[in-house]
């Protein structure tokens, strides 16, 4: 209670705990940027990866599904079992595993071995991302969480805006293996930054729990049952899973389709996709606007707009002058949704914040895992526009689900 009162007093003056610890926040952003770059980098590099192993691009696309499956399983498991560990320790350990995996992947010569290593990379990401979101939730009250969460989520935009184009250029110059080795080095630097960053004293003593979280001796079973029986939390998880499944269904083949239609190399595609990161960055650095509008309302409107964007994007692939602005708009809209839904997730059951954010990440990649086979089937048999239509319809359905009064998600904003 004392910590929450101190937070409210600080935020009443226009500052958050995060403002006082810039190196900590920078480390959290770097953690998201490095692990987040993986799934974005695979798409424009799919033809290169496929060619190096002599497999079809669609088969290489299973790397994204494997990565998602691992994360979907590991994220909630880590969230439940690692509650006794400080969040910073979980993040650093995940980054170290992530770096080791991609260093090994750079040396492999077998596609099945790469699939196995990608599985491990997903596990590392499953530890890092939910712990980072929970940490961000610890650094602010709900009224101002969009602002702080927006900073952390900006790591995704850095991944797309900076890391993915750099990896695309490196892939053309030294091969995709060298590009992923560079990503491993970036993960090691992020781990070092977090290891040395000062942290709030009260959080250093209890950051394994978060604000008011359950005592460590509470069994895992009751915690899981509470989350799974809490209707608003289930709706948040379901909507997030649908949105992210729809997102990756389109993104997974966007790079390959741009290269095929326009006869481009990896580097131009990387820069085109960087437009998504630019849009995402623009929105996430202005998260306070989402606080003012309302998290639920922002998420619903964003999903409706995404329905139109995702269904229309595949038809613009052959027209770069229209495609790039559409990709920027996609980044802006997805940034609104993701900042809003993550902020909502951190407040549904505040005492189980770490568990809920872990399950949010699990829902993300469960959505990716469920959508991936259907997206692959549609892409191979019908073409990219069918994948866009699937994603667009799914986004509209998610908007209806979140807006349904029975979901009771909006009630958290009226506390």
Please give a structural write-up.
- The chain has 415 residues and is mainly α.
- It has a single domain, classed as MFS general substrate transporter like domains (Growth Hormone, Chain: A, Up-down Bundle), CATH 1.20.1250.20.
- The longest helix has 32 residues.
- The radius of gyration is 20 Å and the shape is globular.
- It starts with a helix and ends in a 12-residue tail after the last helix.
Keywords:
415 residues, mainly alpha, Growth Hormone, Chain: A, 0% strand
Number of helices: 18
In CATH terms, the superfamily is MFS general substrate transporter like domains
Q: So what's the oligomer here? A: single chain
Largest sheet: none
The end-to-end distance, rounded to whole angstroms, is 16 Å
Q: What sort of overall outline do the alpha carbons produce when their principal axes are compared? A: globular
Total beta strand runs: 0
Query: Uncertain runs with pLDDT below 50, 5 residues or more?
Result: 5-14, 204-218
CATH fold description: Growth Hormone, Chain: A
Helix content range = over 70%
Which structural class do the helices and strands define? Answer: mainly alpha
**Count of distinct structural domains:** 1
Radius of gyration of CA atoms, rounded to a whole number:
20 Å
């Amino acid at each position: 209670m004392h910590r929450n009162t101190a937070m409210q007093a600080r935020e009443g003056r226009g500052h958050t705990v995060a403002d006082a610890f810039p190196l900590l926040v920078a480390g959290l952003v770097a953690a998201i940027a490095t692990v987040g770059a993986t799934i974005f980098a695979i798409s424009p590099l799919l033809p290169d990866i496929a060619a190096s192993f002599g497999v079809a691009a669609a088969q290489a696309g299973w790397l994204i599904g494997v990565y998602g499956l691992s994360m979907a399983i590991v994220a909630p498991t880590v969230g439940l079992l690692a509650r006794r560990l400080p969040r910073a320790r979980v993040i650093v350990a995940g980054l170290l595993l992530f770096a080791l995996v991609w260093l090994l992947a750079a040396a492999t010569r077998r596609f099945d071995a790469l699939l196995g290593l990608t599985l491990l990379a997903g596990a590392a990401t499953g530890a890092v991302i939910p712990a980072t979101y929970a940490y961000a939730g610890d650094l602010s009250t709900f009224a101002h969480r969009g602002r702080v969460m927006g900073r952390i989520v900006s790591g995704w935009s850095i991944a797309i805006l900076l890391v993915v184009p750099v990896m695309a250029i490196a892939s053309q110059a030294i091969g995709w293996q060298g590009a992923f080795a560079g990503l491993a080095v970036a993960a090691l630097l992020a781990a070092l930054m977090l290891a040395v960053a000062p942290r709030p004293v009260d959080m250093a003593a209890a950051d394994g729990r978060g604000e008011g979280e359950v005592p460590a001796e509470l069994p895992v079973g009751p915690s899981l049952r509470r989350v799974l029986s809490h209707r608003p939390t289930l709706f948040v998880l379901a909507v997030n899973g649908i949105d992210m499944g729809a997102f990756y269904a389109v993104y997974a083949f966007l790079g390959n389709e741009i290269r095929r239609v326009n006869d481009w190399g990896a580097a131009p595609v990387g820069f085109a996709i960087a437009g998504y990161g630019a849009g995402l960055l623009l929105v996430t650095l202005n998260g306070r606007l989402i606080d003012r509008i309302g998290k639920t309302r922002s998420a619903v409107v964003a999903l409706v707009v995404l329905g139109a964007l995702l269904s229309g994007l595949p038809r613009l692939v052959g027209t770069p002058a229209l495609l790039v602005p559409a990709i920027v708009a996609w980044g802006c809209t997805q940034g609104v949704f993701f900042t809003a839904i993550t902020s909502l997730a951190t407040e549904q059951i505040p005492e189980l914040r770490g568990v809920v954010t872990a399950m949010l990440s699990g829902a993300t990649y469960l959505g990716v895992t469920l959508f991936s086979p259907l997206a692959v089937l549609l892409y191979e048999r019908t073409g990219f526009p069918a994948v866009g239509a699937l994603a667009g319809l799914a986004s509209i359905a998610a908007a209806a689900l979140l807006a349904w009064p029975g979901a009771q998600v909006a009630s958290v904003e009226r506390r």
